[in-house]
Amino acid sequence: MRAAALGVGLMMGGAALSQTQNSVSPDEARAIAKDAFIYAYPMLFNYKTLYEQVVDPASKSYVGGFGRFRNYSQPYGPENKEIVTPNNDTPYSWAWLDLRREPWVLTVPEVPDNRYYVFQWIDLFTYNFAYVGSRTTGNGAGHYLFAGPNWKGKTPEGIDKVFRSETDLVVTLGRTALNGPADVKNVQAVQKGYKLTPLSAFEHTAPPPAVPKPDFPKWDEAKATSIDFIAYLNFLLTFTQPPAPSETELLARFAKIGIAPGKPFNAAALPADTRAAIEAGVADGKAALADAEKHTTSSFNLFGSREALKDDYTTRAVAAAMGIYGNTKEEAVYVGTRVDGDHQQLVGSQPYVLHFDKKDLPPAKFFWSMTMYDLPARHLVPNPIKRYSIGDRTQGLKYNADGSLDIYVQHASPGAGKEANWLPAPPGPYTMIMRIYGPGQAVLDGAWKFPEPKKE
């Protein structure tokens, strides 16, 4: 069935919806809407990225459609605002695949052993369902096949591994380590070897019959975070069939307020008390999400597969709100803080120092880096030395005589003797996030702790 466009969905189906919602009390509708909004939240903002990168040619982040890589080789800067909490260590390689017609093949070149790279694969739910790269498949050349939920073929010759997605639309976020501006050409050479090929082209056979082009609804964030989130969700659910067995009862409950794959949604046609209840439920969902964000200081268990997250939809939503497309903890761990040792909000006008004893330096197989973000936007911070992150690969970083390390965090320069270890901050509130690539066991088992910022 071809999914209905959102614009059509907002104008149709009133009678059917009214009949459905008449059997739901306002209290039940409110409770369902709260849970459904939290369930949908990461899918909505995943769709925002999809729309900007695949559907809207006027978008700065447009990649050119499905099945195409857009490689970035320059470090991210404050002018890049496509996603929140971007990393500044591993330039991205973005691509989206539509797996309805046939699987696709990712080809990677041989990557030098001393260069970290990874392709993280994310489905529409924002679950990390597959990894290709230094940690999981090594740095050798290879061909990896990605198939949707309804593909029933056998592993083709020449394919190193097959990965299956729960959803027909998927995104890959590739990262290739960049060792400073002088390394850009080397990163570009690696990225040229990243290829995406439909399976039929890979095997030199005739392609399957074409599939209908989806009528992608225009992204409107105000609508997507209102009662009309239901229309977006109904569209997205058409690419998630068949549903996960663990969600059968959940989706049956959601159906009581008009949530179903491809179903039109017209909020204006709802009974007044039902509409008010759903709107209140959306507000409840937003409040619950905001509260959960306040109590989240680490990415440790935020990102992963469905199996790893155990259908914890609040955690999935927090992950999308705080840094959508974060890595599974075995790949990279994100830790940090927005408050000092007195639980006060960090602000750039107050100088802080982060001290690491030699034995407590971040344990990383590949490397570690700490990045500064302003609040509430969570974007990189402009500064006179154009340093947006600091880590073990920062040129000129100075360790103390005993092997310990001090990092100075503030808006104004800490002075010539300390500037090598300065992480510039905005004048106002901010948050710091450390990324540990290939985290050691001390990180994974919780023995290693991020240090508290101390006032200078």
TrEMBL record:
Residues 67-198 form the DUF1254 domain. Signal peptide: none annotated. It comes from the Bacteria. Residues 331-440 form the DUF1214 domain. This is Uncharacterized conserved protein. It comes from Paraburkholderia sartisoli.
